[in-house]
Amino acid sequence: MRRVVEINDIEINPSQFVIQKSESIYKNYSLKEKIGEGAFGIVYKAVHKVTGESRAIKFIDKTVVGAEKESKLLQEINILKKLVCVSCKS
Fold first, then answer.
1. What residues are paired with 60 via a beta bridge?
2. What CA–CA distance (Å, rounded) separates 86 from 82?
3. What's the rounded Cα separation, in Å, for the pair 9 and 6?
């Protein structure tokens, strides 16, 4: 039997991210071109406004994550935490 999970029931905690900040991403980064797209979201090149350092930022659409995809999303988050975007280096 399939378990149905509401979007608000999906818990993603700060330890699953490289950095968790309460302020808007746009305060610190300027979004540039789209560099990728996947099942869970879209990846953009972004440049830190103070340091000029380039990063890849993935925006995850929680509305497409159901119970059957939740573990894959958490696995992807754990992988993304370990990556350095080679194509984003200036």
1. 41
2. 13
3. 5
Query: What's the pLDDT tens digit per position in 38-83?
Result: 878 898 999 989 989 888 888 888 777 777 788 888 888 777 777 6
Which residues have C-beta within 8 Å of that of residue 36, sequence separation ≥ 6? 42, 43, 56
Which residue in the block uniquely carries the two structure tokens 């953009």? 44
Domains and CATH numbers, the chain: 7-88 (3.30.200.20)
Note the pLDDT of residue 21: 59
Minimal CA–CA distance to 16: which of 68, 70, 66?
A: 70
Query: Tokens for 26?
Result: 């746009």
